[in-house]
Amino acid sequence: MKLLEYEDRRAKLQLATSLHEADKAEWRNITQKVDREGEESTPVLILLEQVLKNLRINLLLVSMLLTMIRPNPNKRKRGGRDAPEKLIESIPYHVKQLDRLVRVNDKSCIDNLRMDRNTFGRLCRLLRDRVGLIDQKFVTVEEQVAMFLCILSHHKKTRIVGHNFMRSSQTVSKYMHIVLRGILTLNEVFLVKPEPVDDACTDPRWSWFKGCLGALEGTYINVRVPIADTPRYRNRKGQVTTNTLAVCDRRLRFVYVLPGWEGSAGDSRILRDAISRPLGLKVPKGVNFLFFIDNAKHKYDYIFDNEEPVVHTINVVSPTALWTKKRDDLAAAMWGQRMNG
């Protein structure tokens, strides 16, 4: 658009210049004609007419130049940004809003960001030290992370978050994606490698589960989907959700997460998908996870993963009477110890 405007103005300027040159040539011709005709011509009238014509051309040229120089008041500002003085005036409000979220009490922080103040501070420190996130001219790292968490935890629109933080939708969207890319690079920090319960474990909660890596379970997360897809995402409770498989170790640290399945999908189907994926859930042979899935019982077959050291992993889930007997014997032993203790 700017290139077209520049070419149009350039053409107008060239036209005015050519008219001016043509006028000068015409004036030379008239002067020569007057010299030839001598006393029979009226040079004063011709000269006056030429002066008036030159004046009109000069006024046209000046008008074009003023049009090119004058800024367009109706032209939209690039990116819809506010003037720097307005941004500076809004800084106290930004500080006050962030203080209300993360510096008043843990309840306010958990309600709005789904984490307490200590966790929020540690997350910001991780993003600074390991990702290289820095304070921008008008937006601090803490405010960037707070806007990201508001969208992520409450499924808010950028317009709503922008209104709450007194920012434009473009600013909220920009920093939301910056923080998201930083979070994705920290997968090795947030997703840990679990360690099985060893034989020397003295914790009464885990001493019965030798070789157990942790627990896994499906959970429903509310979503908004097109009307045509609503039946697929409606779960057995009548809610429109996705069924997300989450795996954690015995210290409640996440090991694996598989989101995206429809709410109508069964837990066993999602588990089969997780262990059959090339980069899915890998469970070494000889260890297991605690898994409660609609009172169903499963057994595991094993395959080799050639991309890592030779480790047997689970690939198939199917019913078995052996696992049922093992579970019942374990429950009976735990109950007997409780009654005798």
Automatic annotation (TrEMBL):
Residues 217-273 form the DDE Tnp4 domain. It is found in: Nucleus. Coiled coil: none annotated. Its cofactor is a divalent metal cation. Residues 100-183 form the DUF8040 domain. Keywords: Hydrolase, Metal-binding, Nuclease, Nucleus. GO terms for molecular function: hydrolase activity; metal ion binding; nuclease activity. Signal peptide: none annotated. InterPro entries: DUF8040, HARBI1-like, HARBI1_dom. GO terms for cellular component: nucleus. Belongs to the HARBI1 family. PANTHER family: NUCLEASE, PTHR22930. This is DDE Tnp4 domain-containing protein.
